[in-house]
Design goal:
Length: 472
């Protein structure tokens, strides 16, 4: 659907890119709440109207769920928020989440034609505005035309892939029953990503909405421990698994087991459980007030640890990354946010040992330079001999990412793994079908640790394959 600019066709020249206003830095350094104020309708009209409506919208191609971006930008510019929300939900099960946490600079906004000199359209903030505003206006998905098929599908994992799968199934008359080990839905959206990026009320609202749509949740239920996989498979017509990856990658250098060294997700979840009031062993909450903290890693998890430590009033927070800034895997906006909040970055430094006696005292680092790229991969960091220095630290947080963590029961369930220990998909049959024909899988446990929006995409496409499997 091509559209005319709602107002001035040269809006992109006259009006620059403008994100919603940011909260003052002293508040940001203290509060576990989102750092941007919401857009107003007049700001959205002004910003969304900057869209050029390119004939071939690169933003749509670069968005993993292929959102109809120019079309909902126009609806938002016109103030037609309910129609915009309907359109957002045609391609995305959690648009309000993606608007908040997608690395837009690498995806839709990175591909925006205006990104080349004028500043990309603020696609993410507009997606968030559309969905939040529609919810505030009482919008709900209309399922009145859905005809129940009588089929039920078990979804293991209430993270973005599982929720997206359940969303598509229930909209097609198939009843999803979602099992999760946690007491709340969201997976890493709730038990991983901190509130300053995604407030927990967002997922609580989604839980209410999904429940009203007919999705059943069986929470605090770990499949393989609280209920057998066989029992689940035999009581449903198909199974979708979106169980994520949770094995923390270690550095493999001396000193990693010293008191004062912790794993990134353990640290973040301890803080989230503390904030949300979920029961946990008091030792699992790590308070960094007054500490010198070193975070090792350059991805989104490392940025979340940096910024959580700042909010806990750490004395200093230093982030060490072995490549240069241009090669950081994390979202640019999160690196900028961390820097603004007081995180110090040391690029081209690689940890070689954690130093200490009865506890951590520092991290030994060696300088690196950027070497050639591995075949089809990123440029590698090469150590520069004779450049070792030590950074003082009371606490070291290791944020090197995650490896697959398949449970033992996969073997009995006939679910094959690939060489990386990710779930192996069948190439002979339906998309996202595993070696057990009644079982489908998607998200991080298939692709390896990735993004919220790619997990949503796979959950949605797996649901379509399940509908084919059930002949719905
Ligand atoms: P998950 O979100 O991991 O959900 C899996 C669910 O399965 C969990 O709830 C788990 O409890 C459940 N489960 C596992 N085993 C069982 C079992 N046996 N029985 C019952 N339930 C089970 N991505 C972005 O796009 N932007 C970001 O800013 C971003 N920040 C991140 C920050 C952190 C700290 C981390 C760790 C990741 C971040 N990511 C980010 C990545 C993103 O969160 C993941 O790629 C995404 O959540 C994967 O979705 P998933 O559905 O595959 O798995
Ligand atoms: Fe951009 Fe993510 Fe929204 Fe797609 S889902 S339009 S990549 S913010």
């Amino acid at each position: 659907m091509a559209h005319q600019s709602a107002g001035n066709p040269f809006q992109f020249i006259d009006v620059g890119r403008k994100a919603p206003s940011l909260k003052p830095i002293p508040d940001r350094k203290r509060d576990f709440v989102e750092i941007h104020d919401p857009y107003t309708q007049s700001e959205v009209t002004e910003q969304a109207d900057r869209c050029l409506d390119c004939g071939n919208p690169y933003c749509e191609w670069q968005c993993p769920v292929h959102n109809y971006i120019p079309d909902w930008l126009q609806l938002a510019a016109e103030g037609n928020i309910l129609a915009a929300a309907e359109l957002c939900h045609q391609t995305n099960s959690l648009p309000e989440v993606c608007g908040r946490v997608c690395p837009q600079d690498r995806l839709c906004e990175g591909a925006c034609t205006l990104n080349d000199g004028f500043g990309a359209v603020t696609i993410g903030f507009t997606e968030k505005y559309i969905t939040d505003t529609a919810f505030a206006m009482g919008w709900k998905p209309d399922l009145s035309n859905v005809v129940p098929t009588g089929h039920t599908v078990a979804v293991i994992g209430a993270g973005p892939s599982g929720l997206a799968c359940a969303d598509v199934l229930v909209r097609n008359g198939v009843k999803p029953v979602v099992y999760d080990a946690h007491p709340e839905i969201g997976g890493l959206l709730t038990f991983g990503i901190p509130e300053f990026k995604l407030e927990k009320s967002v997922m609580a609202r989604r839980r209410r909405l999904f429940s009203e749509m007919g999705v059943e949740f069986k929470l605090s239920t770990r499949v393989g421990e609280d209920v057998d996989f066989d029992q689940i498979q035999s009581s449903h017509d198909a199974v979708f698994m979106g169980m994520g990856v949770y094995q923390a990658i270690v550095g493999g250098f001396p000193g990693e087991s010293l008191p004062g060294v912790c794993k990134a997700l353990d640290y973040l979840v301890g803080n989230i459980n503390h904030s949300l009031g979920f029961p946990q062993n008091p030792a699992d909450y790590i308070d960094l007030k007054g500490k010198d903290v070193v975070v090792l890693g350059g991805g989104d998890t490392a940025m979340d640890c940096n910024r959580t430590a700042i909010r806990q009033s750490a004395r200093t927070v230093t982030c060490v990354y072995r490549r240069d800034e241009a090669h950081m895997p994390g979202s640019r906006k999160e690196v900028a946010n961390a820097r603004e909040e007081g995180v110090k970055f040391l690029f081209n430094r690689q940890p070689v040992a954690i130093r200490g006696d009865d506890r951590v005292r520092g991290v030994a680092l060696i300088n690196t330079c950027m070497g050639p790229a591995e075949t089809g991969g990123r440029q590698q960091a090469q150590p520069v001999p004779g450049t070792e220095t030590v950074v003082a630290a009371d606490v070291v947080i290791i944020a090197f990412g995650f490896e697959p963590s398949p449970p033992d029961w996969f073997a009995d369930a006939g679910i094959d793994l690939d060489a990386r220990r990710c779930v192996q998909l069948s190439t002979q049959r339906l998309p996202f079908q595993t070696s057990n024909p009644g079982v489908f899988a998607g998200g991080d446990m298939v692709r390896g640790a990735d993004l919220v929006v790619t997990a949503i995409d796979e959950g949605r496409r797996a649901a379509m394959a399940i509908l084919d499997y059930l002949d719905v």
